[in-house]
Amino acid sequence: MISYDLRCANDHEFEAWFRNSEAYGEQVKKKAVACPVCGSTKVEKTIMAPRIAKGDSGSSRGSDEISPEAMQQMLSKIRDTVEENCDYVGSDFPEEARKIHYGETEQRDIYGEASDKEASDLADEGIEFGRIPWVPRADS
User: Fold this and answer.
1) Are residues 41 and 73 in the same domain?
2) pLDDT above 90 for 21
3) Domain assignment of residue 78, given as a range
């Protein structure tokens, strides 16, 4: 796995993980990498400091790197928190976000789905939202 610091066309900086540098190139070319703040798919790498492992910990991972399993657990906790504290509005997310933003309905926390185009339109209107990688539920 490789981590890149990225910047979108709206100057939001974020970190993203990829299988390798080729996977990064393929995903950016297909516009499959989106800014978690505004949804823009126009992204580029930023200048990054190299990660240097501190001493021999018996692992090839640096002490500040997160395992894929730990990342999966964190994303699952985020999903649980969102589902417990927000109203699910499904594909009506863009419309509901606009109503809340423009004061047409009560302020509340919502979540749902939006296409890349819908997310871009919301960002262009100055409507704040975030995009979260939604991990599937574990089969248990």
Assistant:
1) no
2) no
3) 68-124
